[in-house]
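Sequence, please.
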């Protein structure tokens, strides 16, 4: 056992005092028990392993909870003057760990105001507003924001601006990125940046662009390294599903949790009014992809995704059930589900289902129904309404999620994803049987924007986060997949992968040399490098200081996929 004693680095007293003066003593802490709580990521192996290795880098010096935009600005000014690194943090799922000792962690838990403008169909949100809060408020007014990631309750729109924003209903609504009107950000010197038409003096918030270069394009997906989002305004759309859902009926409840597990009765929310979900099974991957093209181009539906082995853990009530279903291939390996919405009328639903049935016939697909595999259809009941939920997120029975790969591209490129994932399995071996999903079955495919492109996903699930071996193997998957994708000139990765370090600098073939461009952009937005240093792109000095272990590992994976050095 590693008995090394770890001590967090503290801020200089005068800096701490200046920060305390801004927020008040109640809203700042350097208590060891508190800072520890902010020092471990939720699911990425690379953000859990540092705890196993007793790496003190991830322990922030203090946690500050600002209550207003002005406080955020004042904190950033102090940090910029004193060169204290800052990491923004909402729920700490991904990318929100400190990168160097002595970091201030800014947690937005006090900033959760929502303002809905019904007439202009927009919502302005502070950084701690989650998708389910937004949906609960908007749906009462017959509006919604168009989608949600899988983790409804814990994911915030401001942090998604910094990371990804993939929704199950991307077919129609096309990701969070396409639904933002403007963002207010605190820059590294404490100044305020407002993007879009709202940024022009005297203009209103109606368009995501304004004359000149697209500033939003420079700042989104930058993991909080270009500025701190204090307000985000998103588009709203008509919602016909009713003001609330009976989702607590039959949901796992704390009072009856164990009985619910015994009776396997939870997680069966009803489909919202004027919505329908259809499941299709295909004889092979090729016909699945053909159908994804046809359905997305036909203009019907709001969501079109393939979920393959993901159904095993979304729809099983125990881990044993998940594993048995994965072993037995209980769910169709080549599938898709289509979410239909009768936005204009009930008849819209009927018409769209007719179109879908015709496409099914043309692509040799079968509808799951009372007549065909009713047991499978019944088992799927828990799944695929997360994008509508506004009370709780769904429950999943799976091991410890530890890495994810999410490349993008045309729909047909999902084939390439599967090919590389199969190679990774052959090279590295599985961490658990569910890792085979994406090779033995379809990768998770999210069709975006009427089929203009797709995100596909495969993941690793070692059974526990408490043993480093499984986490290391998951890291190896991520490294291998990234290296192989670069080598084979495959598409850019979303969330984790090619646009973060150490990949950005150790694979200069990306772009090519996009690391050099991003280094310059970082310098413009953050000359002193205080915002999450080294997360998206290293400065030359940071690159020099990369630990040998990381450098050697990158070189090893480069060689493994055929790069000469
Ligand atoms: C079970 C599960 C399923 C998921 N499914 C999906 C999915 O379907 N689609 C999808 O897109 N994602 C998905 N995710 C990923 C997750 O939704 C994102 O990582 C999300 O942004 C994390 O939210 P958070 O509030 O915990 O952010 P954090 O982890 O706290 O922050 C994320 C990043 O944003 C930065 N940040 C935080 N707040 C701000 C701010 N105010 N200004 C600037 N930067 C900021 C942080 O520094 C960090 O880099 C899933 C996660 C889980 C656990």
């Amino acid at each position: 056992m590693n008995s090394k004693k770890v001590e967090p680095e503290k801020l200089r007293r005068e800096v701490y005092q200046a920060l305390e003066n801004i927020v008040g003593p109640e809203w700042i802490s350097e208590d060891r028990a508190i800072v520890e709580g902010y020092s471990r990521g939720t699911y990425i192996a690379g953000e859990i392993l540092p705890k196993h290795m007793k790496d003190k880098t991830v322990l922030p010096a203090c946690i500050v909870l600002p209550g207003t935009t002005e406080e955020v600005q004042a904190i950033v000014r102090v940090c910029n003057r004193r060169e204290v690194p800052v990491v923004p943090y909402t729920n700490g799922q991904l990318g929100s760990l400190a990168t160097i000792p002595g970091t201030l962690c800014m947690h937005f838990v006090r900033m959760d105001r929502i303002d809905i403008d019904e007439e202009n169909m927009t919502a302005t949100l502070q950084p701690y507003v989650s998708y389910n809060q937004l949906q609960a408020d908007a749906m009462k007014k017959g509006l919604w924001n168009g989608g949600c990631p899988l983790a409804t309750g814990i994911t915030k729109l401001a942090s998604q601006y910094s990371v990804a924003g993939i929704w199950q209903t991307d077919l129609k609504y096309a990701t969070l990125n396409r639904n933002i009107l403007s963002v207010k950000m605190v820059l590294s010197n404490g100044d305020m940046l407002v993007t879009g038409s709202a940024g022009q003096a005297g203009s209103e918030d109606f368009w995501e662009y304004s004359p000149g270069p697209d500033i939003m394009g420079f700042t989104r997906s930058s993991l909080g390294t270009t500025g701190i989002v204090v307000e985000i305004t998103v588009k709203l759309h008509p919602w016909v599903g009713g003001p609330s859902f009976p989702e607590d009926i039959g949901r796992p409840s704390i009072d009856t949790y164990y009985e619910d597990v015994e009776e396997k009765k939870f997680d069966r929310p009803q489909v919202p009014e004027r919505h329908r979900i259809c499941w299709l099974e295909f004889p092979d991957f090729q016909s699945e992809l053909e159908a994804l093209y046809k359905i997305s181009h036909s203009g019907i539906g709001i969501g079109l995704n393939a979920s393959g082995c993901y159904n095993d853990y979304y729809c099983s009530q125990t881990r044993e059930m998940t594993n048995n279903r994965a072993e037995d291939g209980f769910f169709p390996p080549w599938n898709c589900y289509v979410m239909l919405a009768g936005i204009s009328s009930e008849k819209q639903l009927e018409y769209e289902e007719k179109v879908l049935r015709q496409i099914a016939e043309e692509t040799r697909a079968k509808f799951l129904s009372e007549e065909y595999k009713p047991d499978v259809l019944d088992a799927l009941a828990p799944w695929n309404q997360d994008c509508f939920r506004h009370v709780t997120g769904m429950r999943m029975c799976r091991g410890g999620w530890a890495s994810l790969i999410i490349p993008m591209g045309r729909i047909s490129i999902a084939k390439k994803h599967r090919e590389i994932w199969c190679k990774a399995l052959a090279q590295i071996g599985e961490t658990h049987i569910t890792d085979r999903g994406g090779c033995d079955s379809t990768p998770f495919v999210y069709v975006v924007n009427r089929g203009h492109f797709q995100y596909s996903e495969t993941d690793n699930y070692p059974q526990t986060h408490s043993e480093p071996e499984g986490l290391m193997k998951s890291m190896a998957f991520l490294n291998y997949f990234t290296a192989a994708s670069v080598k084979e000139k495959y598409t850019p990765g979303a969330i984790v992968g090619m646009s973060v370090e150490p990949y950005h600098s150790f694979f200069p073939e990306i772009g090519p040399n996009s690391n050099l461009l991003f280094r310059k952009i970082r310098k413009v937005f953050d000359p002193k490098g205080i915002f999450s240093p080294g997360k998206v792109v290293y400065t030359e000095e940071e690159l020099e200081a990369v630990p040998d272990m990381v450098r050697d590992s990158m070189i090893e994976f480069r060689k493994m996929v055929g790069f000469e050095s």
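The first helix runs from residue 13 to 23.
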